[in-house]
Amino acid sequence: MEIRTHNSTPPAELLRALDLKNASLHYTHAQAVYQCIWLCRDSCCGVFGDGNNAAYEWFVWRDDATLETSDACYGSIAVALRDALLQTEGYPDPVRHALS
């Protein structure tokens, strides 16, 4: 039995925006969304890319239909997802103070 949750489904507008974004990416071709985490209301972040070539990028989709992505060709979904969360939530306080 397959369990599906609405929270992990990326919005159709995001998929269209990622398709348009393909032309400006240098290293990765958006072929699939591998992770999608809903942050609040209509904002989410996650990872997309080309799994056959282990090339992934993070994305942040905001309430106002703006898309922000990396263009760094991450070799790991987990590392790209970490950076997506850092992009949206920022560094934890101890790290922020250590970098100051």
Q: Which descriptors apply to this entry?
A:
single chain, 100 residues, alpha+beta, 4-stranded antiparallel β-sheet, 3 helices, 27% strand, globular, disordered N terminus
Structural commentary:
This protein is α+β, with helices and mostly antiparallel strands. The chain has one domain (about 5-100). The protein has three helices and four strands. A four-stranded antiparallel β-sheet has the order 1-2-3-4, with helices on both faces. Strand 2 (about 45-50) and strand 3 form a beta hairpin. Residues about 1-5 have low confidence and may be disordered.
List the helices and strands and how they pair.
Blueprint: H1 12-21, E1 32-40, E2 43-50, E3 55-61, E4 67-69, H2 77-89, H3 93-99
Antiparallel strand pairs: 1-2, 2-3, 3-4
Helical percent range?
25-40%
In the predicted model, the low-confidence regions spanning at least 5 consecutive residues are 1-7
Q: What class would the helix/strand composition place it in?
A: alpha+beta
Could you state the oligomeric state of the chains shown? single chain
- Trace the largest sheet across and list its strands: 1-2-3-4
Structural shape: globular
Characterize the main sheet. Answer: 4 strands, antiparallel
Work out the radius of gyration: 14 Å
Q: What amount of the residues lies in strands?
A: 25-35%
User: How many domains would you count in the coordinates?
Assistant: 1
Q: What sequence of helices (H) and strands (E) makes up the elements?
A: HEEEEHH
The tally of beta strands, per DSSP, is: 4
Mean pLDDT: 83
Instruction: Report, as a whole number of angstroms, the end-to-end distance.
Output: 50 Å
Report the total helices: 3
